[in-house]
Amino acid sequence: MIIRIAVRAPMMFLVSIVMSVIISPRLSLIFLVIGPIFAILLGLIIKSAYPYFPEIFRGYDRMNQVVRENVRGIREVKTYVQEKNQIKEFEKSSGFIYKLFATAQKIMSLNALVVAAVLNISTLAICWFGAKEIVGGTLQTGQLISMFTYSNSVLFSLNILAMITTQLIVSGASGRRIAAVITEKPTIENPKKPLKRLTNGEIIFDHVSFKYELADKTDALHDINLHIRSGETLGIIGETGSSKSTLVSMIPRLYDVTAGAVRVAGHNVKSYDLKTLRDNVAMVLQNNVLFTGTVKDNLKWGNENATDEQVVAVAKIAHADGFIREMPDGYDTMIEQGGNNVSGGQKQRITIARALLKNPKILILDDSTSAVDTSTEREIRTSLAKDMPDTTKIIISQRIVSIKDADRIIVMDHGKIQDIGTHEELMKTNELYSSIAKFQEEQGK
């Protein structure tokens, strides 16, 4: 409908102008004067109104963020009795949008005034000069009536074009935002001749440094040198903000190093095909996501071609098989949006099983058993060591008990490797590690 009108309006404008020139070239000069004036006024309106719309859309972003945070943190809002403050925050963000939109609409409403003014001035001018030509005998009454008809068609077309322009102003701001997303180039891309095979789980960090932004003054990771043997179990511990998660994110190229190199199976990770690399590196995060669908569907994210036997096997390793079978429909039980119908510990065990179904060369557990009791966690570690001996396992944890049996343990501090050794060695030589261990031991008593 809109497209049809948009196509017809310019055609109607051109035909009406041509017919007006044929009937009376002199009276048609009125359009030559009125047309540019109309275009200039319309251009000024557009120029004045357009800057408001990008700001309006940014206001919508802010308002949506406020709503999303309140919905996601509804329990905290109620617990801390922050309803009034959050309502004020919403009113502030929505009020900002209202003020901008009201101002923009006032400017845009001038379109109607301009069109009405042009219409009336044109009609008066045609009446005045047309009457003179009739008196002078150079124009007939019927021709003047035809001129009125065509002038109305011209001005109707201009009115339609003004309305379309109004819509273009709004859609133009939206289009630029969409185009910015679509044309955004990925910072991590496949090499031109990628390696399609990853043979083992050996990892080498060679003088690796990393900044989240190149303009940052300090490194998130600084001069990391580390060799992890294939099949080794490595524990990583450190205070919050010591860049433990950032370190392991370099392996599947969730981030690329700023300096140095990360090598897997003897090759720089940048030389691998991204799919090949990430298929061989499984990461399980503390706050992993489950998707709407059955338990089996979620597990098969790790391998969509896996058999039911393989699904059950990895669930047993992750000690998830027991509680899954107790669900109403077992592995065919529907998971609600966000995994709201399973507990935190159950969700973590399902995501561990999902990662294992990839049969990865490298398994990264980033605080992924924090919601699991220590007894079950110990059983999971035992199963991983028994059933996946050739898989390189990196375990990040805040709990000493989760990593004490690792082949080696890294202590990280402010983006650097402070120390490395076995649990027994670090208890003797590293003050930070031993203090964490003693504190947790006292808390556990």
Please sum up the structure shown.
The chain has 445 residues and is an alpha/beta fold. The chain contains 17 helices and twelve strands.
Blueprint (SSEs and pairs):
Layout: H1 2-23, H2 25-49, H3 52-72, H4 74-79, H5 83-108, H6 110-136, H7 141-182, E1 203-210, E2 221-228, E3 233-238, H8 244-249, E4 259-264, E5 267-268, H9 274-279, E6 281-284, E7 293-294, H10 295-299, H11 308-317, H12 321-325, E8 334-335, H13 344-356, E9 362-366, H14 374-387, E10 392-396, H15 400-403, E11 408-413, E12 416-421, H16 423-429, H17 431-444
Parallel strand pairs: 3-10, 3-11, 6-9, 9-10
Antiparallel strand pairs: 1-2, 1-4, 4-5, 7-8, 11-12
Can you describe what's shown?
- The protein is an alpha/beta fold.
- The longest helix has about 40 residues.
- α14 links the parallel β9 and β10.
- It has a six-stranded mixed beta sheet with strand order 6-9-10-3-11-12. A four-stranded antiparallel beta sheet has the order 2-1-4-5, with no helix packed on it.
